[in-house]
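Sample log: alcohol dehydrogenase (NADP(+)).
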Amino acid sequence: MERRDLRADDVAVRVDYCGVCHSDLHALRDHGGRSAGGDEAAGASAAAAAAADETAEATDGGSSVPLVPGHEFIGVVTEIGPEVQRFAIGDVVAVGNIVDACLVCDMCTAGQENFCREFPTLTYGGVDRRDGRPTLGAYAREYVVREEFAHRVPEGLDPSAAAPLLCAGITVWEPLTALEVGPGVRVAVVGLGGLGHLAVKLATALGAETTVISRSAGKLEDARQLGAADLLVSGDGPAMAAARGRFDVIVDTVAVSHELAPYLELLALDGTLAQVGYLGPVTVETTDLLLGRKKLTSAGSGGMAKTAQLLEFCAEHGVVADVEVLPSSRVGEALDRLARGDVRFRFVLDMSDLDVDPS
């Protein structure tokens, strides 16, 4: 794989740590023309095979465009273009899931480049705005990115544990801050995976009274270790009924289709349910919103200003993801286990094993 030559406003980054996201798994399946259903482990193995040969073209009905996943990474600047002003060689930087945007539309000028009217350029699986080539992600040792879309990593943040902040972290940070979560606000987080565990940590650090909603009572100890005050079991009818009207904000991180009505019932007057896990179609009875003036919203990724704000907040409050770090050579294992849900709570790849021994 070859990166482009540096443009005047580019920085080259040696990728040290890259998070493994469910989006990577889905992209690899789609790329190969494989079904996402059926045997999860088999699907992940197929995805791992695709990832292992990062520049190979799919030949079984999928895309013929090369695919390299990875859109939450931290590394060190190794080279800068002549017009770069924000970074110097040796700076530790982070990059998320967008690497360019028009920067002139109303969304971009409002600091929401993730909602760019011309659609932002994705870190992988996108199209470069200037040369039309496909963007290739950070399951690699180097990435070249426009300086406006790189973030300085504050001192004190463990780079391996901070990498998922650039995807899972910012995805939950946006609704938490937009809904003004803080002291006195009662927050519930549905699901305790990669997104959910960071939502709990961030809501707690913001000063909110935080509860985890889970299918399993066995998650209580995990919830408390992450900072939650309580756990509510979604299948416990009496407990759910007793919690009616209890929360001001619910962040729903469940990644599969599910009923929203039981969670809307838990909202207080003017409460908001933020749906960030499942992005497919949902069905909502209007009366479930009407009774209590409740609101349903969503969020995805984040703009540059919010992402920088998140990194500073996390450095100040000691918030990072709970991660299992694997060498990049074990990407297949990471994808297989991710498909089975065998991770607590995020995989991160250490890319240093991609260095070539000069001898």
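Observation: The CA atoms of residues 169 and 253 lie 12 Å apart.
Observation: Residues 34-61 have pLDDT under 50 and may be disordered.
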